[in-house]
Amino acid sequence: TKSGALIGLLSEAWIGPWTEAWTLFTASGILQLARAMFAAKNIPTDHKDLIHDVSYDFYGGRMATCSSDQSVKVWDKGENGQWHCTASWKTHSGSVWRVTWAHPEFGQVLATCSFDRTAAVWEEQVGEQKGTDTHWVKRASLVDSRTAVNDVKFSPRHLGLHLATVSTDGQLRVYEAPDVMNLSQWSLMHVLSCKPGTSCLSWNPSRVHPPMIVVGTDDPGAMTSTRLQIFEYSEDARKWQKIHSIVGIVFDPVHDVAFAPNLGRSHHVLAVASKDVDIIQLVPTGTDAHGGNTKLDVRHPAHFDHQGAQVWRVEWNVTGTILASSGDDGCVRLWKANYLENWKCISVLKADGTSLFPPSTSTHTPAVTPTGHPIQFSGGGHTTHPVWMREIGDL
Q1: What's the predicted TM-score (pTM) here?
Q2: If 0-12 CB within 10 Å is exposed, 13-18 middle and 19+ buried, where does residue 300 land?
Q3: Residue 29: Cβ-neighbour burial (10 angstroms; 0-12, 13-18, 19+)
Q4: How many other CB atoms sit within 10 Å of the CB of residue 180?
Q5: CA dist., res. 91 & res. 120, Å (int)
Q6: Which residue, 29, 160, 203, 351, has most beta carbons within 10 Å?
Q7: 85, 95, 72: which is closest to 3 by C-alpha?
Q8: Distance in angstroms (rounded) separating the CA atoms of residues 269 and 320
Q9: Whole-angstrom Cα distance, residue 160 to residue 176?
Q10: How far apart are CA 343 and CA 101, in angstroms?
């Protein structure tokens, strides 16, 4: 079952413009900056059921939410810093699990996926009169799955306009828009078999490595040590191929995965949300002798306990140096590694608007993590389901 306790999702825009190299500061300096810059906002969303996903656009000035009430809402940030709902519409005939933005180079485009076994592409209509809430148009409905579509993600901009989905039947599908000016046409390019119960995916944003996708599974009935599979696109074979299964690291159902932005690293960093949070490093060690696929050395530098709470979302800042994780304990935690690659919790953001800053300890698992109070969501009726926002000001 999907959780409505998706608290304080921080997307790529959450860290704001990094105009100062403040990541070089000491841990105490980071905490002092965080104390000064965090602000909490409670936004009444008017969703009539559980909110499953929150997504920011590329610039962080727009936000989309989706819910079990089958609707998506788009929010714009005003000059006064307040968020206003500018569009709300029914998108599917079942619960909407995920919503995601395309790069603005391709226009104002959203993709959604649902329990109704479909994914959809939406485009904001240009020239509509301001003040209306019906200016998003469905450009395409992707109906290839026979089971619920659990995640949908656009590819990084440098790869063009591609869309990947995963469904409960264990299929990874990759679509391409051959004409970015005509979003009603999407070609199903690849169908890849994964483990049943695939729940999430993430594109590797690296520009200097071959295109790569990681897929996670949350099938509770499968007692398996292989919860993560990695696929890579081969230019020679012109197809996606499975190059690695990560074994013996994550044993619990995986709810979310996220590749870190790759700014000069020679390896890839992956965050995994399950019962806990895991940081995994994928180090390319060359290519195999047959298909030319990348060989990976898998390392496991960090494992974090969320005080027994299920972790539902993980997201990196734009530099890939700070990880945010949210769980059903009503807290968002921020994690950062020092120069010795020792990870620690640098802040705990509670759903009631308060912040707690753990002491500066260099351990893989934070010594102090307080117990938070979860936001109470009640299903159905006309209960307002809020979104808790955390904003970090410009440096």
Answers
A1: 0.81
A2: middle
A3: exposed
A4: 13
A5: 8
A6: 351
A7: 95
A8: 8
A9: 8
A10: 30
3-state helix, strand, coil in the chain (%, to 5): 5, 45, 50
Amino acid at 354: T
Q: Helix or strand or coil: residue 30?
A: helix
Residues 226, 156: Cα–Cα separation, whole Å: 26
The SS3 assignment for 383 reads coil
**Alpha carbons 369 and 280: distance in angstroms, whole number:** 22
Long-range Cβ contact pairs of 55-59 (< 8 A, separation 24 or more):
55/9, 55/11, 55/98, 55/99, 55/100, 55/101, 56/11, 56/12, 56/13, 56/14, 56/101, 57/13, 57/101, 57/104, 57/108, 58/12, 58/13, 58/101, 58/103, 58/104, 59/13, 59/104
The terminus-to-terminus CA distance of the chain in angstroms comes to 40
- Both tokens of 15, joined, read 């860290």
* Residue 230 token pair: 């990695």
Q: Mind listing the pLDDT tens digit of every residue in the chain (395 residues)?
A: 443 333 333 433 343 333 333 333 444 555 555 554 566 778 888 899 999 999 999 999 999 999 999 999 999 999 988 999 999 999 999 999 999 999 999 999 999 999 999 999 999 987 655 555 458 999 999 999 999 999 999 999 999 999 999 999 999 999 999 999 999 999 999 999 998 889 999 999 999 899 999 999 988 766 667 899 999 999 888 899 999 999 889 989 999 999 999 888 889 999 999 999 999 999 999 887 676 788 999 999 999 888 888 999 999 999 999 999 999 888 899 999 988 889 999 989 887 777 766 544 334 443 333 333 332 233 333 334 555 554 443 32
Residue with tokens 């010795």: 340
The tokens for 343 are: 């990870």
